[in-house]
Amino acid sequence: MRVKQNFKLDFVISDRLRRSGPRRSALAFNKFTQKVIIIIIVVVAVVVVVVTVVVVVVIIIVVVVVVVVVVVVVVVVAAAATAAAIVIEQADRHTRARAHIARCEGSDRE
Questions:
Q1: Among the residues of the chain, which ranges form H helices?
Q2: Is the model's pLDDT at 76 over the cut of 80?
Q3: How far apart are CA 75 and CA 61, in angstroms?
Q4: Which tops the pLDDT comparison, 110 or 34?
Q5: Residues 92, 98, 99: CA angle, nearest 5 degrees
Q6: pLDDT band at 19 (very low <50, low <70, confident <90, very high)
Q7: How far apart are CA 92 and CA 41, in angstroms?
Q8: Domain that holds residue 59
Q9: CA dihedral sign of residues 55, 58, 59, 60
Q10: Those residues with Cβ within 8 angstroms of residue 51's Cβ, 6 or more apart along the chain or in another chain
């Protein structure tokens, strides 16, 4: 008889707990879990957007640097080629002038 009373008492206590405590705490836990999940999703979305923007900015900077380097190299090569052409032209003029002077001196000696 005592066992049955304890069982009934346990059943009544568990029924009351089921109606009051665990349901409310489970709902509160679910709401808290939902808030945490939403916060995590928002943080992950913000991180993804920030990383994407940083990657795009880095790619743009790399492209700009490469274009600037190519332009500088082209300008330097063009300047070097122009300087070489000027030096060659001056050397050619000098050589022609010396040949002309040598011819003139040769005709004077004769």
A1: 2-19, 21-109
A2: yes
A3: 21
A4: 34
A5: 90
A6: low
A7: 76
A8: 2-109
A9: positive
A10: none
- Our count of domains for the chain comes to 1
Higher pLDDT: 91 or 68? It is 68
Confidence (pTM): 0.51
SS3 110: coil
- Looking at residue 84, what is its pLDDT? 93
- Copy the structure tokens of residue 93: 């003029």
Whole-angstrom distance, CA of residue 100 vs CA of residue 98: 5
CA distance 11 to 8: 5
d(CA 102, CA 106): 6
- Which pLDDT value is given to residue 74? 97
Q: Is the pLDDT of residue 95 over 70?
A: yes
Longest CA pairwise span in the chain (Å): 156
